[in-house]
Amino acid sequence: MIKAVDLCKHYGSFVAVDQLSFSIKRGEVVAFLGPNGAGKSTTMKVLTGYLAPTSGQARLCGFDVVTDRVKAAAKLGYLPENGPLYPEMTPRDLLSFFGEARGLSGSAFRDRLDYVTNVCDLPELLDKTIGQCSRGQKQRIGMAQVLLHDPEVLILDEPTTGLDPNQIRHVRDLVKKLGETRTILLSTHLFQEVDAMASRVMLVSEGRMTFDGTPEEFKSKGSGHMDQAFHALTTNN
């Protein structure tokens, strides 16, 4: 469902992503870890087609994200960290706009609108101006937009940012449920999110893959502790 082959991204002489290769199957929820500046966000932007790779290939559901970008995008739901929203719109307006852009109309759109309104807890926000919403509320609106067209692949960058503990629990449950039938790659700095949601961990440091395995295997690299494993795999100390 997600496949990267020798993926590289250079900015001049700086190598942000250095020959990453991996594949993620349907039904996997993969936590994508790494220090700040390790290449996580760049990799995710390349996978979504937002950035073109310097070399290598990225595919979503069999479609090359560069040469078949429109077909790949139809399969993808992408939630960037602090994703942009239109502050003058209401969530209803925003979702109607994106629904039309995705080719949804009539009963198909209404059914999806009802679904995302419920799973993202938006009933009381639908007709409130987005600019008046809190950070956590905006994150829920962004998640609704991501899920609107029922994508097969989800790429989520810090999906619990700005949420309160109850909302975090809700997102964890939602991601686990969605992950039963979809492919999910999520970036996070919170190890408790890895434990709560992920079936697999990929860790990058300086643009290179330094670990790919289960959460338990990851913990074993740090005497049973994720923070110690993270330190051991991302430093030379």
Order of helical and strand elements: EEEHEEHEHHHEHEHEEHH
Main structural class: alpha/beta
User: Major sheet, described briefly?
Assistant: 6 strands, mixed
The helix content is: 25-40%
Low-confidence parts, pLDDT < 50 over ≥5 residues? none
What portion of the residues fall into strands of 2 or more residues? Answer: 25-35%
CATH class of the largest domain: Alpha Beta
Describe this structure in words.
With 237 residues, the chain is of the alpha/beta class. The protein is 38% helix and 25% strand. The protein has 2 domains: 1-75 and 152-237, 3-Layer(aba) Sandwich (Rossmann fold); 84-150, no CATH class. A 6-stranded mixed β-sheet has the order 6-7-8-3-9-10, with helices on both faces. It has a 4-stranded antiparallel β-sheet with strand order 2-1-4-5. Helix 4 (106-119) packs antiparallel against helix 5. It is globular. The mean pLDDT is 94.
Features:
237 residues, 9 helices, six-stranded mixed β-sheet, alpha/beta, single chain, globular, 10 strands, Rossmann fold, four-stranded antiparallel β-sheet, 2 domains
